[in-house]
Amino acid sequence: MSQPKRFVLCWLAGMIAGGMCWVPDTLAQSYPVKPIRMIVGYAPGGGTDVTARLIAQKISENLGQNMLVENRPGASGFMAIERVAPSPPDGYTLLMMTSNDTVLPALRPNLPIDLERDFAPVSLVTIGPLMLLVNPSVPARDVKELVALARAKRGQLNYGSPGIGTSPHLAGALFNLMAKVDLAHVPYKSSADSVVAAAVGDISTCFASVTAALPLLNSAKLRGLAVTSANRVSSVPSVPTLDESGLAGYDRSSWYGVLAPARTPNPVIERLNLELGKVLSTAEMREALVRQGLVPKTNTPAQFAAFIHTEITESGKLIKLTGARAD
Predict the structure, then answer these.
(1) Which end of the chain is more exposed for a tag (fewer CB within 10 A), N or C?
(2) In this predicted model, what pLDDT tens digit does every residue of 220-256 receive, in sequence order?
(3) Is residue 249 a contact partner of residue 243, using CB atoms and an 8 Å limit?
(4) What are the angstrom distances between the C-alpha of 82 and each of 7, 56, 72?
(5) d(CA 20, CA 26)
(6) pTM of the entire structure?
(7) All residues at 6 or more sequence positions from 192 whose CB lies less than 8 Å from its CB, including other chains
(8) Cα separations (Å) of 174 from 87, 148, 243, 248, 276?
(9) Would you say domain 130-227 falls under CATH 3.40.190.10?
(10) 34-127+255-322 domain in CATH 2.120.10.80?
(11) Strands 130-134 and 223-227, how do they pair?
(12) What confidence tens digit (pLDDT) does each residue in 46-91 have?
C-alpha cells in the first residue's frame, strides 16, 4: 500500500475513533434536550410512586427539563421492567427499581428480561427499613422473648406481609432462618392489610414500613420490637435493630434505585448519577423522604450493580428456602 493511501486510512480511522468518543461526550453535555420519563411499576400513592415524584420534581428544576413519572402497575412490577428494557438507550426512559424486583428471577425464572443484562444501573436512592411488629396480646416485650415464645409454641405463631416475594415476606424468612424459628407466612393483598390484621389480632406479627407502623404504635394497637436495618431509625430511636436484639448481622430492608436501558452511554449514566446525588443530598429532600420512613442513600453505578447482584443472589436463596412460588 502506498504511503499516501496508508496516511488517508489512518486519518479516517482516527476520525471514526475520535467521533465515537466525541458523540457520547457531546450527548452528556447537552443531555437532556427533552423530557425524561421515570417508569414506576406500582400504582400512584405507594412508596415507589411517592419517591419517584419527589425526585422527579427536583431533577426537573435542576435540569430545566421535565422528568415525568409514568405508572405501569402489574405483574409485581414486571410491566414497568418490560416497558423500560427495550427502550432506546439514550437516558430518556428510566425505571424506578424496587427491592421486590430482585425476587423476580427466582420466582419467575423464565422471564425474557434479565435485570443485570438488560439494564444499566444508575444509583441507589433510598433504603426503607422495616419494623417487626406484634399484637399487644403476644406476650413478648422484645425480640429475645418473641424467639423464646416461637420456639416454645413452634408452628403456632405467624407473620403477615403484602405477598410472596415482597420485602416484608423475605424479612420474615430471614428472621426465621437466623432465629431458628418457624413463624408461618400469611400473605395479604397489601402492606396496609397485613398491618391491620396484626393490629386486630388476626395474625401474631408482621413486618411493615416504619411509616405504616407509626399510627398504630402511637395508639398502642401494635408493639414495635425491632427495625430490620443495620442502624436505628431516627423517627423511632428507642426501637433497637434486630442485630442489636440478638440476630447478629441481620440487615434486610426495602429499597429503591434508578436503572436505564442497557448500553446507555456512560457519560449519560454519570450525569444522571450526579444529579441524583445532588438532589438527595439536600436537607429538603432528606426531610421529605424521612417523613416517608425512607433513608436517602446513593452510590456509584458500579456499586449499585454489585448491590443488585448481591440482592438477587440473597433473595433467590431466601425464596428457595421458603419454597415460595409465584401466584
Answers:
(1) N
(2) 999 999 999 999 998 899 999 999 999 999 999 999 9
(3) yes
(4) 48, 21, 10
(5) 10
(6) 0.84
(7) 212
(8) 36, 17, 12, 12, 31
(9) yes
(10) no
(11) antiparallel
(12) 888 999 999 999 999 999 999 999 999 988 889 999 999 999 999 9
